[in-house]
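Students often ask what a 'structure token' actually looks like in practice. Rather than answer in the abstract, let us consider TetR/AcrR family transcriptional regulator, a protein of 209 residues. Its sequence is given first.
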Amino acid sequence: MVGEKRMPKSQRGRIGRPSAKEAASLEDRILAATWDLLLAKGARELSVERIARAAAVSKKTIYTRFHGRSDLLMRLLRRKLELEESGLHEDVDAEDFRDAFCSVGRRILAFLISAERQAIAAVLAELPDARHDAWTSTYAVGLRAIDALLAHPGAAIALANLDLATFRHALLQCLIGRAENMLRAPESDQPISEDWMKALAKLFIRHDS
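Now compare that with the structural description of the same chain:
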């Protein structure tokens, strides 16, 4: 038709096909909107329609990137675990192994009782079939933080005669139990007890590093 603008050949066929960078950005936006809604409204209010409105995308856009609400929530959970884990490996290079032990323990405890973890727990209440996978992922995060501690130069001396495989799980179970107690009684034990971590270090560490 006269006066009709023709699309350049280089742009033909690209409508509705975002670049890899654009697609990643769009997925991040959807996950961010989902997280904000989760914190503000709770897991039960997380319908795909609400998420689409919050992310300013269509429901079709969400369904082309996620297999549904459950898949979206699990992807969000994994993303948050990855972000939370990034802060667990700091201060492991403290010169004294006891200091490193207490530092890592405090960080794992903070992770286990964080608002993020509570929001994730709300997601799991909505996804009972995903609880095992989510718990396994959370447990693995804690074990990797402890593995970083075991790389400390003083670990071999400080933990001499201990079976390290058993130590990893025993330490994490102690921290999980402590976190559960803190969540059950938040008013009476709000701060993470320094004395408790020192007592735990004394239980496991038999020699000075």
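One point worth highlighting: The longest helix spans residues 20-41. Ask yourself how you might have guessed this from the sequence alone, and why that guess would often be unreliable.
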